Amino acid sequence: MRAFPSPVLSAAAFAACVAVPMGAWADPLPPAAKAEVTALLGKLTASSCEFNRNGDWHSAAEAKSHLERKLSYLEDKNLVKTAEQFIDLGATKSSMSGKPYLVRCGGAAPVESKTWLSRELAVVRAAGKGASAPATGPTTSR
Predict the structure, then answer these.
(1) How far apart are CA 61 and CA 47, in angstroms?
(2) Taking a C-beta distance cutoff of 8 angstroms, is the pair 36, 125 a contact?
(3) Do 64 and 90 touch, CB atoms closer than 8 A?
(4) Run means of pLDDT, 10 residues per run, the chain, 142 residues
(5) Cα–Cα dist 97/103, whole Å
(6) Given CA atoms 62, 112, 82, 80 in this order, what sign does their dihedral have?
(7) Is this model's pTM higher than 0.85 or not?
């Protein structure tokens, strides 16, 4: 006769599995994307720009802190794998109100954060095209 595990043991095993935080299985942003997001947030911090969330203007340092929290949340939920996904899902609008984030630099008119961050991401990528960029085009081996 085949023995089956006791119902108490099965329930305990199930409880142990669901008790593990989901973040334990979360994948962080891949290294290349993490480097881009880090560089992007660094550019924001180094700028003299202000960041508008829900009608209130914040310093670039405050914006960076807020966006890092959103990135962490997105990583914990396995929702982001690229810098573009971070911009689209975490740095474009308030998840509470749905209002778009704005960036204002100096005396310039505010622009939506998606526009500003996407433009700066292009600058980050252009600056990184030197030594670390993978070769493109066909390769031959001899």
Answers:
(1) 9
(2) yes
(3) no
(4) 52 44 64 95 94 97 96 96 97 96 96 97 88 41 41
(5) 17
(6) positive
(7) no
